[in-house]
Amino acid sequence: xxxxxxxxxxxxxxxxxxxxxxxxxxxxxxxxxxxxxxxxxxxxxxxxxxxxxxxxxxxxxxxxxxxxxxxxxxxxxxxxxxxxxxxxxxxxxxxxxxxxxxxxxxxxxxxxxxxxxxxxxxxxxxxxxxxxxxxxxxxxxxxxxxxxxxxxxxxxxxxxxxxxxxxxxxxxxxxxxxxxxxxxxxxxxxxxxxxxxxxxxxxxxxxxxxxxxxxxxxxxxxxxxxxxxxxxxxxxxxxxxxxxxxxxxxxxxxxxxxxxxxxxxxxxxxxxxxxxxxxxxxxxxxxxxxxxxxxxxxxxxxxxxxxxxxxxxxxxxxxxxxxxxxxxxxxxxxxxxxxxxxxxxxxxxxxxxxxxxxxxxxxxxxxxxxxxxxxxxxxxxxxxxxxxxxxxxxxxxxxxxxxxxxxxxxxxxxxxxxxxxxxxxxxxxxxxxxxxxxxxxxxxxxxxxxxxxxxxxxxxxxxxxxxxxxxxxxxxxxxxxxx
Length: 483
Known about the structure:
It is built from 19 helices and 8 strands. With 483 residues, it is mainly alpha-helical. The chain folds into 3 domains: 10-104, Orthogonal Bundle (Helix Hairpins), CATH 1.10.287.990; 108-235, minor pseudopilin epsh fold, CATH 3.55.40; 284-482, minor pseudopilin epsh fold (3-Layer(bab) Sandwich), CATH 3.55.40. The strands form 3 sheets. A 3-stranded antiparallel β-sheet has the order 4-3-5, with helices on both faces. The radius of gyration is 24 Å and the shape is globular. The protein starts with 13 loop residues before the first strand and ends with a helix.
C-alpha cells in the first residue's frame, strides 16, 4: 500500500514519542564541575570545546529542527517534515547522550570505588569487575573482532559513537552495548543507560590522538559510581528492545548462504581470502607538503597511524577469514565481514584521498591560491552545476552535513554518464557500496582536521580546495567515462 502522506496533527508531531512542544528552546546544561576538574584524564581544552562547541552545536541543531518541524506541520509541508526528521534525531540524540555523559564523570579527587547493588550485579554478570572492564573496553575501542562479534554477539563500534553500560528495565539484566554517531540508546533500544562513554574523536583526539584505547583505559579513573544507580531506573521512553547484533548476523548469514560477500560487490569471500597482504602505500609528497592547509602533524598521524591501522586490521581479518574458510565455520565468516568492510574500505578510501591532494608548489601555475580543473572534467562540472563555485558550495554543504564520521565524494555515475556529489559513512568504500566511481574524495573524519581546525569542519572544507589535485580527478574522469 502507498505511504499515507497526511501531516499529523500538531500535538502528535513527536521526538521519540514526546510532543515537540515539550522541546522548544531547550538550553545547554551547565557542567557539574569545572572544565579543568577531570585533568589529567581529560584536559580542560577538550572539555571546553566538547561542552561549549560540540554539545552546544547539537543543542542548536535540535532547536532549529524542532522549530522547522513545527512550522512545516503548520504549513502542511510533508517534504520538509521528512527532511528535518534526520536532523532532529541526530541532534536530539547528541543532546540526550551528552546530558548523560557529563554526570557519568567525576573529578579524580572525588572518585570512589564501585560498590553496592551495581557492583554485585556486575560481578554476577561478568564474573568480576576486571572482566567487565575488559569487555567494555573491547566493545568500545573496537578490537578483537572475532571474539566479540562472532562469539559474544556484542556490537563492535566502528567510527563515531558511544559505549554504554545498560540495563533492561523489564528483566533487570545488565549489558554492554554501543550506538553509532548520536543514536540515543534508550529511545532506540528500550535499554536504560547507566553510564556512557563518548568515543567520537573530538572527545579525546587533542590529548590521546589516534590511541582511543588509552583514552578508554584512562576514563575509568573518573567514572561516577553513585550507590543508588540501579535504584533509579525510570524509563522515560516505552519502546520495545531491539537486538541489533542478531539482526546484523541474520542479514549477513543470508549473504553467506547465497555464496557472495555483501562487503564488496562482485567479489566472493574465497576470492578475497586468496589475496596477498596489503601494504601501506607511500605518500606522493612529504608530510609538510600540504601546509598550511593541512599541517605536518595531522598528515603524519593520519598516514602512519590511521591508514596503517586500517591496513593492519584488514590483513588480520583476512588471515582469520582464511582460517574460518579452512574450517568451514560460517559463523566466523559472517562475523568477519564487518571488519573486512571497515578496514578494507579505510584502505581503499585513503589510497584515493592521498592522490586527491597535491602540494601547492606542484601546481602548473605556482602562486595561485586555487588550481581549477580543466578539460572535459571542467566542462562536465559546469554542465552539471553551472559553475565551479556552485559545485564546491554544494560539495562542502554535503560533506559538512555528514553525521558522524565519513567521506565526501565527487563521483561518476556509469548508469547516467554524469557527475554527482555523494557521501559515505565511516569507511564505507564508494564504488563497492554504490557502484559510483570516485573521482576525488575528502575525508571528514575528525582525525583528518581536528588538531588544526578543531570543531569547525566547514573551515577545513573551505581550505582543502587549495590542495585538490584536479589532474588526478580529470584522469579518473577520463578513464571512467571511457569504460
